Structure to design on (457 residues):
């Protein structure tokens, strides 16, 4: 049984939160960094989204919720769950697809259902559900409350506003905690958010408060005030928490400006504490790492969930089975869709099969490079039949090369016809030359302070 043997810590460390809280926040961070390592070793089932840099939101809410209160979370839920339950072994086991506890390895990283914590990876999907639970609490005439975490990107989901409206009209004991980390996957908030965040909740008559994760003690006080208010009034409350995700959205999908990310690392309390209190932090890290060693070993000793290996037996109804050209890689299907869409779009200049590469695809995020000129974009997309067209539109907006047309080129030429004829080779070379020229011009425009206007797909 993995047990945490706590090292001796002074009662307080100057300028740091109390060691009990520090241990919790650092435990979450080290847990997630361990997850990334395990992922790279192929020991996890499915993907993970870490909350490195945001740990204090979970710690703060766990300080104020009572056991009967219900907490909803999203795709970035490990910290929220661990802060509340401290079930490290269980979460490791869950993400490793093991039979032990939580959801018997079937929920994985994003679908937790344990200890009155529920998570779901569908952005905004949990928000109306959380209101339903809050409604049940109201009908039961308890003073229990429900909390729900959403990200700033999820402010683009209509269900959030429908819920804010009904929660306010019905007077539901619902605390909405918005983790404002400035990005949705790789899309900056600057591109998608208009107006004021709190004003959106205020428009529905819901009171708001703002805090941040760089000052955890103030954050904990703010969460206490928000929780207390919901419990006392039985009405909704909206808490905005400014924060920053220090690691990739998922794993390798991070194209944010490095200097921006570095600046936030310098601001991060746990990171800074290593410099200001090296001995205490080192001791704490050693303690937690050895606990995590034991927790991983214990989780891995549980058998793989039988459900994960069972063949699909339920009827498929009227759905046609999807036929994949390359059953091993969904990415190939996406690539084929892209090429098909481009072949019918005269504004694209077909060069050869390497014109657009889906170089990487994880969990709904695609990193694309166009023509090898490094005009990559990571994009977040809804899973829909129009996704290929959306990718093309987005690429075209990001990569000005995509807008060039040449009078010498057949407008509807397919990638295949170009790459397989001799004439096409000349066209291809011409296209490459034109492309390089365009990239040069685009760079020059950028250097001159012009920005390329991006249309959202
Ligand atoms: C309805 C829906 N659309 C798209 C996705 C893919 N996706 C997963 S997380 C994410 C970005 C979420 O951004 P935000 O709400 O700001 O949360 P953060 O990741 O920053 O914590 C997207 C687009 C999804 N899970 N659900
Ligand atoms: Mg976000």
């Amino acid at each position: 049984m993995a047990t945490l043997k706590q090292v001796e810590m002074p009662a307080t460390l100057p300028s740091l939160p109390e060691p009990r809280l520090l241990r919790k926040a650092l435990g979450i961070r080290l847990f997630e960094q361990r997850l990334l390592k395990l992922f790279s070793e192929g020991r996890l089932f499915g993907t993970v989204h870490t909350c490195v840099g945001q740990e204090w939101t979970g710690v703060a809410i766990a300080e104020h919720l009572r056991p009967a209160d219900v907490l909803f979370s999203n795709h970035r839920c490990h910290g929220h769950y661990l802060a509340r339950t401290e079930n490290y072994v269980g979460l490791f086991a869950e993400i490793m697809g093991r039979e032990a506890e939580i959801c018997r390895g079937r929920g994985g990283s994003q679908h937790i259902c344990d200890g009155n914590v529920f998570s779901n990876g569908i952005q905004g999907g949990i928000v109306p559900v959380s209101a339903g639970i809050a409604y049940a609490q109201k009908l039961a005439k308890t003073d229990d409350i429900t909390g729900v975490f959403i990200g700033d990107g999820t402010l683009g989901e209509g269900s959030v506003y429908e819920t804010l409206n009904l929660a306010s009209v019905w007077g539901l004991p619902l605390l909405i905690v918005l983790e404002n980390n400035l990005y949705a996957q790789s899309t900056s908030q600057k591109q998608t958010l208009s107006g004021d965040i709190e004003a959106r909740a205020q428009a529905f008559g819901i009171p708001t408060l703002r805090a941040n994760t760089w000052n955890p003690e103030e954050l904990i006080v703010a969460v206490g005030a928000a929780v207390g208010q919901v419990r006392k009034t039985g009405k909704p409350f909206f808490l905005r928490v400014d924060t920053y995700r220090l690691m990739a959205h998922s794993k390798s999908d991070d194209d944010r400006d490095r200097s921006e990310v570095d600046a936030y690392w310098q601001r991060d309390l746990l990171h800074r504490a290593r410099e200001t209190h090296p001995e205490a932090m080192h001791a704490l890290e050693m303690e937690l790492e050895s606990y995590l060693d034991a927790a991983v070993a214990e989780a891995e000793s549980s058998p793989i969930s039988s459900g994960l290996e069972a063949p699909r037996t339920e009827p498929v109804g009227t759905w046609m089975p999807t036929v994949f050209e390359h059953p091993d890689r969904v990415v190939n299907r996406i690539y084929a869709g892209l090429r098909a869409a481009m072949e019918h779009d005269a504004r694209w200049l077909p060069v050869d099969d390497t014109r657009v590469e889906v170089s990487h695809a994880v969990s709904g995020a695609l990193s694309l490079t166009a023509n090898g000129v490094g005009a990559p974009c990571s994009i977040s997309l809804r899973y829909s039949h129009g996704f290929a067209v959306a990718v093309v539109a987005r690429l075209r907006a990001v990569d000005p090369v995509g807008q060039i047309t040449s009078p010498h080129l057949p407008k509807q030429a397919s990638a295949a016809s170009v790459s397989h004829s001799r004439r096409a080779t000349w066209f291809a070379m011409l296209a490459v030359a034109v492309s390089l020229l365009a990239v040069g011009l685009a760079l020059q425009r950028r250097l001159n302070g012009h920005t390329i206007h991006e249309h959202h797909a």
Summary: Confidence is low (pLDDT under 50) at residues 349-422, 450-457. Residues 151-153, 181, 183-184 surround magnesium ion (ligand 2) (CB under 6 Å). The first strand starts at residue 70 and ends at 73.
